[in-house]
Amino acid sequence: MRTLIRSAAALSAVGLALAPAATPAVASATPTPSPGATTVTKAGTSFLTATAITAGQPVRVGASTGDHLYWSFPAESGQTHEVTATVSFPKGRTGASTWTVDVFDGLRRRQACTAGAQTPTADAAATSVTLGCTLRRVRPWAEPWSGDPLPGTYYVRLSVTDLPEPDLGLPVDVDLLVSVDGEGGASGDDGKLEASLVPNTRAGTVLTAEPTPEPVAEEESSLTGWLPEPGSRWVWTTAGGVLAAVAGVVGFALTRRPRRP
């Protein structure tokens, strides 16, 4: 009996030793602003007027539902960027709304997101909605036909794609942050982009003074001004007509029969 009890105890000890240890829960890292970063309080309304920000710089602006908000940030090769945004709603909304965050590169090509809620829908009772987009790692070079992310200026656009018409124009508060993973610089890919993808936004020169008109040539008032220029087609046509008439008269004189007396 004692032998059986000792065997059972030994098996229990072995089972406890072989049992897998409990894995501690890993909390997802939430992007945080950089220490001492100045909060940006404005946004652009197009690619040309996009507000420039840097990675780790918080953004907090007030806008109206239906506005298209634009920001731009620089990206270097080897970096992976994550865009997070939170839109806070007022009370009294009549229905659900769908929001979207899009990211474009320097050539204004839409970049795909590898993670994050890029197009979430908030119901009528929700007080806020959180959007996210994790971009692919920026490459130092790529083939011309590919849409791989390359170094340069990137654009973030936040907008609403679907909502009830009565909710259009309601005030909202937007909090946005672009975080970066990786220091950039060296990369395992061969090759290097010759110049960053930055659109040409230099405007042309504005003319403030009226251009000076070119002088107009005075018309000839001599008696021979109406004659055609030598060598023109009118001269050759006239000469050909005269020669044809003379040849016709001479030919008629040679071929007509003489009259009898």
Characterization of the model:
There is one protein chain. The protein is α+β, with helices and mostly antiparallel strands and 261 residues long. 15% of the residues lie in helices and 24% in strands. The protein is built from two helices and nine strands. Strands 1-3-8-5-6 form a five-stranded mixed beta sheet, with no helix packed on it. A four-stranded antiparallel beta sheet has the order 2-9-4-7, with no helix packed on it. The radius of gyration is 41 Å and the shape is elongated. 18% of the residues are buried. The model is unreliable at 1-28 (pLDDT under 50).
Quick recap:
The protein contains two helices and nine strands, in the order αβββββββββα. It is of the alpha+beta class and 261 residues long. The strands form two sheets. A five-stranded mixed beta sheet has the order 1-3-8-5-6, with no helix packed on it.
The secondary-structure class comes to alpha+beta
Rg computed from alpha carbons, rounded to a whole number of angstroms: 41 Å
Distance between the termini: 176 Å
Shape annotation: elongated
| Biggest sheet details | 5 strands, mixed
Strand arrangement across the biggest beta sheet = 1-3-8-5-6
Helix-strand string: HEEEEEEEEEH
Strand content: 15-25%
Tell me the total number of β-strands: 9
Number of helices: 2
pLDDT average, as an integer? Answer: 80
Give start-end ranges of low-pLDDT stretches.
1-28
Question: Fraction of residues in helices?
Answer: 10-25%
